[in-house]
């Protein structure tokens, strides 16, 4: 293996962004991971702890309901959501990520699909009772990050819930040169649009590194 995947990601992202393509590097990175030239990126096998804590507390019953997982990567969050009973779709812009997720979860009830958050299938809009977004929007530069926030919100059905996990950036902190771009308070609040209102927006300091914090936010559509 040549180098760690984060360094490779930085290089691919810089080239992709210079070429005006904010998402092309994800496929290149997952392909390099599958080929073994770097470790497989974002190789999480457990649901995100903040998502898992939320589902433990709320114990949502997804029976007869639909869920979608945005930028699903290797599928750990999607599999968790499916165990709650939701009819679950999980999508990623990288075809290799989707292949890896399918291979990793044989027999899964989750439908893993290649799709672009910035060009959503019209029949996905406003029909999901639970929308889960973990670390996708923060992987995009501005533009199109603001638009991506609005697109995530459009997936939520009337009465539905959106949960977002993202790294947090202070309002006075400079915008990073490359990914990730931790979200400002203004950006996390921007998921609430129209009749999609914030239920809770929590800034949670990292246990090991208090200088680092994450947002865990929940929104509900009236
Ligand atoms: C930082 S990774 C996080 C992956 C996963 N959510 C996790 O937490 O392990 C961001 C993911 O979003 C995907 N992604 C980026 N832009 C996207 C877009 N426009 N539409 C769909 N997926 C996208 C990437 O391919 C990648 O899998």
From TrEMBL:
Keyword entries, A-Z: Methyltransferase, Transferase
Gene3D superfamilies per record: Vaccinia Virus protein VP39
Biological process (GO), any one: methylation
Ranges of residues in domain Methyltransferase: 70-160
InterPro entries: Methyltransf_25, SAM-dependent_MTases_sf
GO molecular function, one term: methyltransferase activity
Signal peptide: none
Keyword Methyltransferase: yes
Name of the protein described by the UniProt record: Methyltransferase family protein
Organism (species): Pseudonocardia cypriaca
Lineage: Bacteria, Bacillati, Actinomycetota, Actinomycetes, Pseudonocardiales
């Amino acid at each position: 293996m040549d180098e760690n995947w984060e360094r490779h990601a930085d290089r691919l992202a810089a080239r992709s962004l210079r070429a005006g393509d904010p998402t092309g590097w994800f496929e290149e990175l997952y392909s390099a991971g599958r080929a073994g030239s770097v470790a497989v990126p974002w190789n999480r096998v457990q649901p995100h702890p903040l998502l898992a804590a939320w589902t433990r507390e709320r114990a949502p019953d997804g029976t007869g309901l639909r869920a979608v997982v945005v930028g699903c990567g290797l599928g750990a969050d999607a599999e968790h959501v499916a165990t709650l009973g939701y009819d679950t779709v999980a999508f990623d812009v990288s075809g290799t990520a989707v292949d890896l997720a399918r291979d990793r979860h044989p027999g899964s009830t989750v439908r893993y699909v290649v799709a672009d958050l910035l060009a959503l299938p019209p029949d996905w809009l406003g029909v999901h009772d639970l929308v889960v977004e973990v670390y996708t929007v923060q992987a995009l530069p501005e533009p199109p990050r603001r638009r991506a926030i609005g697109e995530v919100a459009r997936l939520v059905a009337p009465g539905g819930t959106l949960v977002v996990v993202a790294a947090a950036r202070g309002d006075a902190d400079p915008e990073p040169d490359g990914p990730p771009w931790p979200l400002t308070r203004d950006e996390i609040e921007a998921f609430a649009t129209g009749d999609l209102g914030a239920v809770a927006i929590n800034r949670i300091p990292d246990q090991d590194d208090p200088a680092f914090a994450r947002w865990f936010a929940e929104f509900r559509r009236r």
